[in-house]
Model the fold of this input.
Amino acid sequence: MKKKGEVLIENVVFIILNLIFLTILILFLLKQGTGVVLMERAHAKQISLLIDSAKPGMTLKVNLEKLYDISKEKNFPFDETIKIENNIVTVKLDPEGGFSYHYFNDVIANAYPEPDNEGGYTGMYIIKILKK
Amino acid sequence: MKFTINKRGGDKVISVYWFFVLILIAGGVILMVNTFYGAPYDIRDLEGEVLASHVADCIYSGGKMNPLLVSPQGVFKQEFQDNFLERCDLNFDKQGEFEEIQYYVKVSFLERGEKNQNRFVLEGGNTNWVNDCVIDTTKKRFTKCVQKEFWVLNENDRAYLVKIDTVIGKVEENVK
Done:
């Protein structure tokens, strides 16, 4: 009778350790997928491709809710997340970071976050394409 | 004499090996994930396609050739060739930075029947990238090349085969 109890405790501890291991692994995978560096690079490239495909007079509305959440976590102002100057798109989620990507379309692109009714932002960015 | 084996001790030894295997698996997964997420997205194929489409729209739009490019009599204008990038709203320069241009675009107009003879050529960007597209595709190359071709009719119903070659460098931002 004693052996059964000892074996059971060992199995339970074994299973718990395995579950902890799997949990840590899954959390690591999820964290990697939403990494700041990855988000900056991906969004800078996506926005520059959008601007390249756009024509003067167009207004683009881009969903950047994921960036908005990250900027809130890092206390970085959302209105400084996207900068478009001299044909370069820069996406920043912290003061020391940022990724820039050049676009070839010779237009002026003005980007600003869409405000909500409560003094904050909706998480969307408006990009207006104007002729140079 | 009967020998009884105490299996309890054996289970504990196997558990140690099991955690060693788990550590190996975790290490492998971490390595794979870092390799995957560490490699930058390479969007140059898409960018080349967009550039080619942009140039195509500049040359031929709404069923007509750009009147700044070719006169109603079918004569290609030198002025358009000299200011090609400006006429097609292309900005290849990274202002304020002394870096080489990361784009190249070439548009060739061939008449029907003249397979190898270019009637007119428009070119702009970094000509150093051109040879990269000629290199055997089995070898690794650093630039991404896209080619598009289509037929156009001018006002005199003269048909031209338009070939657009685009080359995108941007190796640092797209290739690890």
Notes: The CA atoms of residues 111 and 162 of chain B lie 9 Å apart. The interface with chain A takes residues 8, 11-12, 15, 18-19, 22, 26, 29-30, 33-34, 37, 40-41, 43, 46-47, 50-51, 53-54, 85-86, 89-96, 102-103, 170, 173 of chain B (CB under 8 Å). The helical segments of chain B are 7-38, 44-59, 78-82, 84-87, 171-174. Residues 44-174 of chain B form one domain.
